[in-house]
Every structure is written in structure tokens, then in C-alpha cells.
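User: Teach me something about this protein's shape.
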Amino acid sequence: MKPLSLLAAASLIASAFGAVPLHAQSPAALTATSPDGSLVLSVTTDNDKRPTWSLSRKGKLLIAPSRLGFLLADGINMTRGFAIAGSETAKGEETWEQPWGERRFVHDKHNEVLVRFVQAEEDGARRMNLRFRLFDDGIGFRYELPEQPALKTMRITDEVTGFTIAPKGEAWWIPGGEWNRYEQVYQHTAIDAVSTAHTPITMKLEDGTHLAFHEAALVDYAGYWFKRADGQSFRTTLAPSSQGPAVVRDLPFATPWRTVRIADEAAGLVENDLELNLNEPNKLGDVSWFQPGRYIGIWWGMIRGDWTWAEGPRHGATTQRTRQYIDYAAAHGFRGVLVEGWDKGWNGNWFGHGQDFSYTQATPDFDLDGLADYARSKGVHLIGHHETGGNIANYESQLDDAMALYEKLGVDVVKTGYVTDAGGIVADTDRYGLKPGATRMAWHDGQRTVNHYLDVVEVAAKHHVAVNTHEPVKDTGLRRTWPNWVSREGARGMEYNAWGAYANGPDHEPTLVYTRMLSGPMDFTPGILSLEGAEGVPLASTLAKQLGLYVTLYSPIQMAADFVEELDKHPREMDFITSVPTDWAESHLIAGEVGDYAVFARKDRASARWFVGGVNDATPRTVKVDFRFLDPGKAYEVRIWKDGEGASYLTEKRHAIAYDTRTVQKGDTLDVWLAPGGGMAMRIVPKP
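Assistant: First, the predicted structure itself:
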């Protein structure tokens, strides 16, 4: 099977937007299959002429007939009165290279069908196309609205894309539309006990099949929440807008892809590039100016309350302290130093307000220019920080100046923040063009803010700055198109461990692997080797688990988040942290179950070394590490960091750690014990 030629691809795109006449004959139903034939798609209309889709796998119904269409604010809904007016098929296969990532090369092989729907005259005579792309391990589909006389602008109040899951099963999910955005504890329930969930949402069916529902290429549209209607029937519901319709778009346009990953086991979900393959190729060209790497920072002290973001006697971002961290980074091989609280605007009530933030003016006790020069002299890069307090109007008014300043100073990565409750984004105010006293609010995943996040990435790219978004919209694979969007938060990260004992339970990270991490890199900020939060509250982690996080929770930028004084107390653990890469040639989940445990093997992109890392829930277990991923005929030295005897996150022995060195080759196996809340790490180096 060959990739589409440019001519064929252009023809297909043109036809999607109405450039090719509709077929004269209208089939009642259409079917399509994945390349290996295991997935069978059916598209038809029901007795009420409502468009529907269904999906079978290996002869068993997976998604029962489910509805398609839109609810509109200013016209008859696009849900009934449709007939299939024709279709086109295509095939595609290519292998493309990531500039950085979990693996260097990504393979894309799919079958595609474009289904044309036309609505009856009495219902509006609108046209709506559905493009389905079937892979052997999943499906993606989107709406494509062609230019047409009956419809110029769509004002969409909601989307009724349905997902009726036929078999019974269990789900891992967080609530959608609640105040704490994506930063919530994962729930594990029966599928029919889910309410409204954020995506990705992961399921395991009774026959062992694994599913994950999400979306790809979220651009100029509202993110969707996965809403249960009844039983195991779900539908999309779009993040709202304070201006009425959730989405307003002029035609022609295409929606984001609605995606379903499908696998026999958990590893098949994790080693799946569905969303990346549904995004457009790299628009930036050469991005070698972004270098993956490790960093430390002036951050954990504020999170714990030892220091403050605001100016004063406990201000964290001082010139003296930053020089100390630059020196430490230079001595231990860290590429970057993050500094939060360096700029003016932190002294007032910034949470949910943010109108006082400056992104170009430093506090009096922070020498921005001098520290940039000092870092450069040490071979270290400052990592910038832009907290908005959720006020994107204020940020947008300074955005280009702020990124130009970073470019001038050699700051090539910025961490942005949007700390406010869900629905609390200050999108526009009278300071930025509205009538006096007017304010427009938005959701973090509404259309207005979705566009804002991408605008920031585009402006940053012009100035050769990479973006790490906190309090973000969910990742939908746009890092392929905009590879300077390198990481983001979008789940409960390490910071929650500073605010309460076991705030992130021991099963949190083994759940993230199979849920949040399916969407893309996460800046989890591991490396709290003290295992203590504020006032000594314990983490639900052993020391070995902190090392395992560097391999299990992927990001091209990885923080050693503890105070440098605490890092210095653990030289043997720092030996692992300062050697583990952040850019990989290959990545494989070699053992694991959703919510229980996960063990990864990843190969360094820059050498022949492999690294293995694992994280565990509260149940002690022994896992078998199979070294089948190694090259045959070679011997390797394995350095091992593992839970020590009696280690447990629940006791003072959570720091208990053991070390071992072995010689292994392909075909060998090794049993490793994981403590409650434990983990392990390995560095595997070819022997001469």
C-alpha cells in the first residue's frame, strides 16, 4: 500500500469541501474496514433519517449505532432529514520522523472513507461530510462542512456525536466541567457509572479489549466532554462559551477528529500514535533550536510555602538564589533553571485576576539581564515563566514583546500558567476594546481559549521559544504540527503532594500512564527525593518510585523538582537522574495493567543505552522484566535502583532503596519486587 500522491491528496481534500459534484445515486449504508480487516465501520441513517455510525472488531459489535450531527443556535438542527449522497475512499501509508518524542519514527497506515450527507429541503438542505480514517488499532473521524449556499456561518450550541459502547466493562476517568479543570483524582467505575468525563477516558471491556476515547487536532473549536446519556450511551458535549454558541465558524471548515484507540491489552493503548497521525505535519521546519533536557528550578519552595512568588522577605526569585541554582545546574549537567515569580504583578490578588502581571519588567531584587548573561557563561539556559492568573486579555496585549525579550536573552523555553477556576478565564475586558465595565469570561477548553493557547505557541515559535503550558487545554497531538509545544500539565502533578498527606494516592501515576499520558507529554515535575511536602507531609511514594517516574511519565523536559540541598543528600539517586535522557528512539510498555502498575523500556536517541522505569500502586508485587528489547548477541551492564527490603509509602521505610548491578542479554529475564507505592529504575549500557 502506497501513500497518497500529492495530486490524489489534493483531489481528496477538494472533494471534502464540495469541489466535486455529489453522486447521483444515494446508497442506504456504507462500510469500510481497517487495513487488516479487524475493524469494520458502518455508516447509515436510521428511521428518522438521522446519520449514525457503528463499529465492529473481529466480528463483535464494539460501538452500537450512534448518532451524528449538530445543534445550532440560529437554525434547524443538523440532526435529522439526512440521506447519504455519495462517498469516496482512499488509502495511506507513510513513516514520518519526530524531531523529539517517545519514539523517533511513527508509522501511519490507514484506510479512509469520506461520506457525504445532504439534508432534505424542508430541514434546511444543508450538506455535511464525515471523514473516517481506520487504523488497525483505532479510528478517527471528523465533520467537514463544505462551502454551500444554505449555510455561511455555523453557530454550534452542541455536537451530538455519539458513542454507544456495546459490551460491558470498567472505566478510569475524571469529571468534565468541574471547577478544578483536569486536576482531579481519577475514578474507577463501571462504564455505566460514568457521568460527564474529560478525555482521554480509558475503558477495559469484559473480554479484555481496551478502549480510549479522545480527540485530535483541536483547533478553533471547543474541546468536548464525554457525557453519558443513559446506560453505556455517551455523546460529545462542547465546553461552553459566555457568548452563547460553544463554537462559531465560517464555512468551509473541519472539526477536530473524534478518536478511539482500541487494543487487546494495555500496551496496545500506550504504544499507539493515533492522535499524532491525525494531526498535520510539522509547520515549523527545522526546530533544532529546541533541545530536550533536564532542569531544576525555583518552584518547590513556593509550592510548599517556604518562599513566596510575591516580593518581600521570603521572595523566592532573587538574584542570589538564582545564581546558586545556575551553579548547581552547571555542576550537575542540567540544561535549564526555571524561575517563577521573577516579574512584577504577584503582590496583589492575582488568582483569577492577573491584570497586574508584567511579562517584561522584573522585580527589583531580580537582575534579569545579568542572570541571563551569567547562565549563558555557565552553559545553562534560564527557563522563563509567564503566569496569567487566567487573564489572557492582559497576556495577549504583551505577548509579542514578552517573547521578543526572551529571544533576546536566550531564554528558549517558557512555562505558561492559567491559574483560575474552570470557566474563570478573563478573555476580554474594557481595557482591551470592550465597552467600559464589560468583561467576557471563558473556559480553559472553550473555543476562545483554545485559540489563545495556539496563538501563544505560534508567537513563541517566531521567537524560537518552546512552550510548556500549565493549566492547559488537553493535548490533542498538536505537537506534531507545532513541535515547539513541548509539554503541558493537564492533570494532578507533583505539586499536590505538597498540600496533604498522600494527596496523590499510590495508584495516581499508574493510572496517569493509561489515561492522561495517552494524550501527550506531561510536565509532572518528579524528583522530590525528600519525599516530603509542606510541614513534612509524606508523599505516596518510595524513593525508587521517584526515579521510575522519569521513564514512565514522558516529557522532553524533565525537572528534578526538590530543593538542591535535598538533591545533594542523594548522590546515588542523582547518578540516575542526571543520566536519564528526555528524548527517545524507542519506547515500549513491557509490563503493566491500567491503574495498577507500569514498566517501560526506552532507548536513548543519542546512544545505545536503554532505560527501564516502573511505578506501582499500593499492592506489593513482583514484576518480570524481559530484556527482549535488547539487540541480540550483545552483553549489557544493568545498574538497578529498586525498593529496599520492607519499603512502603506508608512507613518511615519509604526511603529504603537497594542497588544492584547485573550483566544481561536479549532473552534474559529478571524478577523485581515493587513495594506498596514503589517503583524501580534501570540504566542499561552495552559492554565493550
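Now, about its shape. The chain has two domains: 6-277, 293-582. The first strand starts at residue 29 and ends at 33. If you'd like, I can walk through any region in more detail.
User: That's plenty for now, thanks!
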